[in-house]
Design goal:
131 residues; alpha+beta; 3-stranded antiparallel sheet; globular
């Protein structure tokens, strides 16, 4: 029985996206960012983190690209699309990932794609994956 004066309804709230701004080149934190810029950084971090490798992260965080090392590039290309899509859609601010484009290197594949988010489109260019 629910005590008088209390509601059994649960209200969903959206948490703020404010986070630290990482300067990856200088390897330091330089202030704060929010919304679209914070989400672009989150996408970058997800794609740089190998899933299941670091205990600090949830099993849902990161991407499993290391298993593509040594694989045929055409096979890797098809798997990259799926893996990036699955990794990014774990974030509830991301709605879809489309328009993949691939460029083959000697031992890597560079991809670009568009991330559809609650803040609009974010173009991710030059994401390099070693195969």
């Amino acid at each position: 029985m629910i005590p008088q004066g209390y509601s059994s309804e649960v209200e969903a709230i959206t948490l703020p996206t404010k986070t630290y701004h990482f300067d990856f080149e200088k390897k330091r934190i330089v202030g704060f960012i929010d919304h679209r810029v914070a989400l672009r950084q989150a996408i970058f971090k997800i794609l740089q983190t190998e899933r299941y490798k670091y205990l600090i992260y949830s099993p849902r965080y990161g991407v499993q690209l290391e298993e593509l090392i040594g694989k045929d590039k055409d096979y890797a290309k098809s798997q990259i699309k799926r893996m990036v899509y699955e990794a990014l859609l774990q974030d509830d601010r991301i709605l879809d990932v489309t328009d993949f484009d691939f460029l083959y290197g000697f031992d890597d594949i560079t991809t670009s794609f568009v991330v559809h988010t609650i803040y609009g489109l974010i173009e991710m260019e030059g994401v390099t994956i070693h195969v």
